[in-house]
Specification:
140 residues, mainly alpha, two-stranded antiparallel ribbon, single chain, 6 helices, 2 strands
Amino acid sequence: MTTMFNISEAVSIGLHICTWLAQQENAETFFSTRKISSTFRFSTHHVAKVVQKLMRAGILDTTRGGQGGIRLAQHPDEITVYAIYVAIDGEVTISNCLLDPGVCLGNCCVLGRWMAEESQRMVAMMKETTLSAVLKSVEK
């Protein structure tokens, strides 16, 4: 199955983890990555890699030990979808064409300009959309 909006599995995992954590009633509680992995049926190794990137970006707090785990490092109002994306996959590069640059440079491509504009709109929306906003849209 293909989708119009294609993001990496790692970003999808990061968005799911952060949204799930934002839904929890006690923001101070640390949750086991093993529990989260089993909840979503994600690979524990892949979750660990994603968590490490989100921790380095200051999006997640982690602690070790029997009561260890992860929690959001900031309030959901302060974490944007774009920040999660960038923490995991890096800054978005916007291309002027869907074709390989060897085929089309995109400097006179009508479709490429349109796609670049739509990509810029998507990035802007991701920069404006917080985890809190995502939760509000899901609750509707």
